[in-house]
Amino acid sequence: MLNLQTIIGGDLNLKKKLIIFFVLIAAVPLILTTMVTSYLSQSALIESVYDDNEKAARSLSEDLNVSLAFNIELLQAMADTAEIQSMDPVKQLPIMKKIEERSKGISTIIVNDTKGIHKVRTQGALASNWDREYFQKILKGADYAISDIQIGNSTGKAALVIAVPIKDAQKNLLGALLGVIDFENLTKNILATKSGQTGYAFLVDRQGKVIVHPDQTLMKGMADVSSLAPVQGALSGKSGTISYEAQEGKNLAGYSNVALSNWGVVVQQPIDEAMAGASKVKFTGIIFTLIAILLAVLVGVFVAGVITRPIRELVGVTSKLAKGDLTAIANVSTQDEMGQLALAFNTMAKDLQQLIRGVINNADQVAASSQELSSTANEAERATNQVAVTMTDFAQGSQRQMEEIENTLRVAGDLTQGAKIVADKAISAYSLSDDMAKDAERGRKAANNAVEKINEIKEVTSLTSGVITGLGEKSKQIRQIVDVISGIAGQTNLLALNAAIEAARAGEQGRGFAVVAEEVRKLAEQSQRATEQIGQIVGEIMQQTDKAIQAMDSGNNKVNEGVDVVQTAGQALQDIMEQISKSVSMVRDIDTDSRQQLQGMQHMVGSTEQIAAIAKEASAGAQTTAAATEEVTASMEEIASAAEALAKTASELQMMVSNFKIQ
């Protein structure tokens, strides 16, 4: 596809490009205008056809409504007359014939009774309408009823029946008044309606069957066209426009509804016929566009020749200049842009002559200077190489020195860390020794207190032992007293026994004395038993007292041994105190020495780090100097190479400028 970019950047010459531009300038607006005009004319024609067809459909449906309404009102007026309400055929027939003669649309008038049987009719034989839908509607109370289209048996023509009720003054249904309408006369306007040359109108009943159509085959067969879009719109009770596809092609249709009978009126025109005017407009536009393009080509050829002629002359002069002939001059014949271009070209050629002269002179100087620069660069390169070797050796030595210093720094760091650990341990030992001294002092004091308490226990034990010994002596004395009491009780018992014997001998005079003697004997026996128990208890006390005395003696011995042990422990704690004091003093000295050693090691590490930093800077400086020297060497090599290239370029330039003709 040809586009503007292809034209500008393609292989076409300027003349052809100008011709194409002229054609495009003339053709594009005309083509766009033709397209827009054609589209607008088509849209306008379609809207016009739509509007005309809808108006025609509305007009036809209104005419049908008016005719049907007139006939309904006429029949209702007849039904309200006394003659018709009398249901007497003799009275009814005259008025029925009179109305039939005056009416242009009613062909026959019939009176039915409530059973659907004809009572009288203006034409034809009497019959029954009981099974007709319109009659059933009247029986159900409808104000009027319109039948479907019927074909007459005798005439073979389409007919329509309108029925209205016949009622008396009390609104009782007496029968029905029927009017047979001449359908052809009613619908003659539909067949007469045209839309364009081949467009037409047709009428369908409420089921969508054709009842009026220019095609008699469709009308006689009452073809079902309820599926057509305009028919569906009309039967829905609406008016409007629509385009739809039919067997003969696409049609533009307007439709409307006949309200009283719910029929549909459609007025349509083939779209090809409707667009015929637009096609003429389009064809005319195309013809004018082709003529304009032809004129644009002719004008473009002429104008392009005028514009490109001086350009071609300038191209010839430019070709000479490109071959080295700087003496070529363009012919300046006009003062327009092309003349200004030729004048500027001549000025450029003169400036180029002067430039080439300067280049020739400068090329000789550049050639000589480049040779001198090449020699100087080679000498500087050799000197720089020697400096680079020396700086490289120095940098390597500095690197090794820095590595040794770093090793020393690591060792010093390890020593510093060890000294710090020793100092920390010394501090811990000093703290621990101090705690041990305090604990030993508390132990010594506790031992002294133990000795004092044991001595007190010894004294208390001695006193207790004396008391228990005295208690043993007292127990012995109690035992002796108990023995005496026991002896007295035994003697008293014997005396009481003897007194009782004597009282028995005395008889009645001695009975009271015998009773006393018996009581004395009992008391003596009780005293003897009590003394025996006391003696037994005292004996047990003496045994326990002996054991207590033995235990106290053993306790005294253990107390004496405890005193000796505690005194020995106190002396040992005293000795420990002296040794701990010496240890604390030694640990304090170690702590002081460790701190001094740590400070010395830290100072040594700081000095070593400074030395390492200085060595690192020296090494870095040496490396930088060596690198810079290498860069200088490389630069000198590049300078030498550039000087050689410059000399070669100067020679080539001399050869090139020798091709130019400046005189």
From TrEMBL:
Which N-terminal stretch is annotated as signal sequence? none
Q: What is its main location?
A: membrane
Tell me where in or outside the cell this protein is found. Answer: Cell membrane
Which PROSITE patterns did the record assign?
CHEMOTAXIS_TRANSDUC_2, HAMP
Q: What Gene Ontology cellular-component terms does the record carry?
A: plasma membrane
Q: Which residues cross the membrane?
A: 18-40, 285-307
Where is each Methyl-accepting transducer domain found? 376-612
Q: How does it sit in the membrane?
A: Multi-pass membrane protein
The text of the family note is:
Belongs to the methyl-accepting chemotaxis (MCP) protein family.
> Mind telling me what this protein is named?
Methyl-accepting chemotaxis sensory transducer with Cache sensor
Species of provenance: Pelosinus propionicus DSM 13327
Starting at the broadest rank, the lineage of the source organism is: Bacteria, Bacillati, Bacillota, Negativicutes, Selenomonadales
